Amino acid sequence: MLAIESIHVAIGSVQVLRGLSLAVAPNSMTGLIGRNGAGKTTLLRSVMGHLAPTQGRIVFDGQDLARLPKHGRAAAGIGYMPEDRGLVPELTVEENILVPLWATGARNAKERLDFVYGVLPELAAMRERRALLLSGGQQKLVALGRALGVGTRLLLLDEPFEGVAPALSMRLGEVIAGLRGSALSVLIAQSDLNHSRKLVDVEYVIERGANVAAEAHAGAA
Fold this sequence. Notes:
Elements: E1 2-11, E2 14-24, E3 29-33, H1 40-47, E4 55-60, E5 63-64, H2 72-75, E6 78-81, H3 93-104, H4 109-119, H5 121-125, H6 136-150, E7 154-158, H7 166-178, E8 185-190, E9 202-207, E10 210-216
Parallel strand pairs: 3-8, 3-9, 6-7, 7-8
Antiparallel strand pairs: 1-2, 1-4, 4-5, 9-10
Helix pairs in contact: 3-6, 4-6
């Protein structure tokens, strides 16, 4: 589904990724673990087209993503939940979920919105509230809902449990676990896998922008 092939990425004069490789199999959950500053967010931003590798390739379903414009990721079925949530404060919950669907001209926006509310019914209850009035944990749920809206094939989740109260963290874990067995592939980037070790099939470790190890979880499937 997703293949990262020895990519090198620099931000300004700083080399952040140094030949990193990983693979996300179809219908699987993959963990990427590394300390803050290891390069996890840089990897996800590279997949989304915000940063361009100087070497290596990012291949999604057989297609080199370098050939796609940034907005082409959402149209291809890739949903992204950034660590900082990235919501538009003045927009409502529902509008924030719909933004990437509007941007791609999706004709099934109502269907995708209904799907999100089916997975996260608490968002339906707050659909008219502006994002700036939500707690940090509630904003995480909205960011996940927005990613689910367009992420029909692949979800990229950057520190989904970071800075979230235990009850909401548990809820996020339930939602992500509920995606197992669906048509989605999921890549979860975290500083540790305490919240998701039982979820992932394979975990990769990143340190200073390079691979350290990959471990298969036979019992996760």
